[in-house]
Amino acid sequence: MADSAAADLFDGTSAIRHPVTLRWQAAGLEIVRAEGAAEVIPLAALTFNEHRGDRLVYGHRDQPGWRLLVPVDAAPAVLERMPQGGKYGGWIDRFGLVRASVVLGLVSAAAVAAVMTAPSWLGPMVPESWEQRIGSALVGDLEQFTCSTPEGDAALAALTRDVDDGKSPITVQLAKIDMVNAVALPGGRVLLFDKLVQEAKSPDELAGVLAHEVGHVRKRHVMQALLRQFGLSILLSGANSDIGGTLGGVAAMGYSREAEREADEYSRMRLAKADISPAATAAFFGRLRKLDPTAGNKQLSYLNSHPDSGEREQAFAKAVQPGKAYRPALTPAQFTALKTACKQDTKAKEWSLGWPD
Fold this sequence. Notes:
By secondary structure, the protein is α+β, with helices and mostly antiparallel strands.
């Protein structure tokens, strides 16, 4: 219909992509999901986020993590009433380019020493909206490389609910990347690489690894690591940054030993709260420990960016409570759905990280 348009909705509560139909009503934008559920969003609540490839991305002022992806060639009757993007970006358009540049210059001059010497306390102070923009600039659009099936998305959402404290929305996705790894990205995003899922011996193992990466997000370790590795330039370059330039550069970014231990502690805490045994995660680190880190196997980046697998194996093994009745992180059907998601999603492209020889 000329007055409606198809789009994809991420509601901010899970990594599930919802196909929706858009149509303007007197009260605002009506969003109808495939299963028939409908809601009306007032125009004042919608924000324009970015132009991403062949999609226009909109947000919700009151729902962090909420994203609406609308094709650029959608019906004019729908697009004409949507919020319009500025020339440079939201706050720069409001203040003006010259004044925004002056403000950034003053802030950078005052903060440069602190940024270079104290990322551990400065990182958590960086607004999450800045971190999201930095993440988009460094990594780009990952949607085409993520695997999505109804059953796989539901399994991943269930796993995420168990290992996340739910304080604010977080996006967890499965990426078609042939590497045994998982990575926390700037802006509250976590990627599980498909090779890691394929190599996992049990869903409990995935739960421990995912909880570790979520711990990096919740402790704001990602922003701290960006500041430690790139300094103040990561804040100044913003959406025009070419630092790192690829997911590979961000995935190879290391954390401090203190940050790794904090993320492991978060993982063990979340596993305990969810009644999931940490034994499988201990076994995972045990397998990594047996691999030779000097062998130059770049496909196992956990060995390069995460220190001392033996120490971590022991910590998770000690967290096992003898006699406790643990439950599996996923049912066999859910685990199978997650393992087969990338094979079933024929639209997902495989990402090449371009590791140097």
